[in-house]
Every structure is written in structure tokens, then in C-alpha cells.
UniProtKB/TrEMBL annotation:
Source organism per UniProt: Equus asinus (Donkey)
Entry protein name: Serine protease 57
Classification via SUPFAM superfamilies: Trypsin-like serine proteases
GO BP of this protein: proteolysis
Keyword Isomerase annotated: no
Amino acid sequence: AASPTAMGCGAGGRGRLLLTVAAVLTLLTRPPGSWGARIIGGHQVTPHSRPYMASVRFKGEHFCGGFLLRARWVVSAAHCFRDRDPRADLVVLGAHALRVAEPTQQVLGVSAVVSHPDYQPATHANDICLLGGGLNSSAVLGPAVGLLKLPRSGARPPRAGTLCRVAGWGSVSDFEDQPPGLMEAEVRVLGLDACNRSWTGRLKPAMLCTHSEDSQRRGFCSADSGGPLVCRNRAHGLVSFSGLWCGDPKTPDVYTQVSAFVSWIWDVVRQRPHGPQPSPPGVPAGAA
Ligand SMILES: *[C@@H]1O[C@H](CO)[C@@H](O)[C@H](O)[C@H]1NC(C)=O
Ligand SMILES: *[C@@H]1O[C@H](CO)[C@@H](O)[C@H](O)[C@H]1NC(C)=O
């Protein structure tokens, strides 16, 4: 059942709009990351039932999601790591309520971020990165910490209408409450052409869209970035960007289409079985 706490990100939006009038135009294509707060139209999951979920923190604050692919590799979105020294980042695994000192939590350092060499901030194309081997030690797999599978290499993206789920912890924005625990929404895949029309032709290949299956707003919001869209138990999408109002059907949620990056991911993982060497800031690592 839907939790009454899962309110839309638009609530309270007027106040925020007034505070950021100058930024409004750019927000239309802005990745979620500092606007609104949480998975919307969703519900709290059973604690630790999504053991692959990672909370990525910068200076102690959750700012993006991700998922555990291998004991030393987390997949997330490249836009989360722009202009950021990854050595200030931490990955928290095994969490449900982020502010609680849960015994299941494992905190790992990030020593390198391998962003896709063709990531384009202006269009959000190829918005994917690997935190990996960059994790300074190995996750210990168990009931609360586990791996999520990629789609098979070359797999087609899920068809329009496929039911998937997206989870995240939302943000610690000044304007929104924290969710009580990991939240998740059920969403349906929207055909890329229809989605591209809604986005007035601004979408690039290797993107995937979802929308709500009914009139309720559902989807991701700020600080859910990098988290997986799970369809048939595989990570088919990574939260990339949405419109000004979270869950707004006029601007469907857009994800990185993971199946287009499966060989890139395995190339990076195989080349760096013990993890990447720390890369100097500004130099895209793994640009193979
Ligand atoms: C990894 O990094 C975290 C955060 O910086 C630190 O607390 C932990 O001790 C480190 N672990 C190892 C094995 O270096
Ligand atoms: C979206 O539409 C624009 C304009 O028609 C087109 O140039 C672009 O290739 C389309 N994107 C995708 C992913 O189909």
C-alpha cells in the first residue's frame, strides 16, 4: 500500500521557486540532485530487501544512489561526480534508514570514479560511472548487502509498458524531510519516441524513460540519481534526470539505458581487477 509519507516533490515548491527564480529556466533539464527530495508516489520497502542499493555520500551527506555490481564495484550516474574529488566520497551499503547506526551498514571509501568517457553534461548522454575497485576495500556480501545483475550484453531495453521499480533515499535538501527509510516506486517503461516528444526532441540514444501507470505522480526525484531502475531483477536503468516537478507526466523520468553500456562496464572491471588507480581530478579515467 502506498505510504502517506510519500508526498510529491512539488509540495512546498512555490517557496523554493521564489528562492531560486533565476535558476528556473535551467532547471527544466537539470539532473535531479538538489531539487525536491525523494522517490514519489512510492512506499517504504521492507528493510534490506534491496541489498544492492548503495548510498553515495559526500562529506557525510547522502547525495546519490547507486548499486553494487561486484564486491568492489558500484555503478552510479556520472553527473553525481562532476567536479568532485572522489576522495571525499563514501559508499554506504546495507542501509535502510540512513541516519540510524544500523549494524548491517558497511562504509567504504571511494578512491576513484570511472566516468564514461563520452559522458556529456549538457545533454546527459552516457550518464554512467563506476566507483570501483575505487572502493578502498571489498564489500562483505550477506543478507543485507548483495549484488544486482546487469542486463545481458546487447539486450533490448524493456518494452514500453513493462513494470519496473526505482528506489532511493531522496535528498537532505533544506526544504524536505528525509524519508524514513529506503523508498521505492513502481513505474512503467515509456517508449523512447513518445518520451522524446515530451522532452521536445532533446533525448539522446541509450536513454530509457518511465512514467506513472495511473494518474498518481510516481518516479524519482533529487538525490535518487544513480540508483537503479530494476526490471525483471536486472538493472536496466540508472536515474539520470527529470523535469522541474518530480513525477510530472509532461517531463517523464529519464534513465541511462544500462544495456547499452554492459560491454563498457565489463571492460573496465576486467582491466582493473584490483580496482583503478586513483586518477588525477579532471582526467576521465578508463577512457579506453
Ligand atoms: C576506507 O575508507 C573509509 C573512509 O575513508 C575508512 O573509514 C576506512 O577505514 C577505509 N578502509 C580501508 C580498508 O582502508
Ligand atoms: C529525439 O528527437 C529529435 C528531434 O526529432 C531527434 O533528433 C533525436 O534523435 C531523437 N532522439 C532519440 C533518442 O530518438
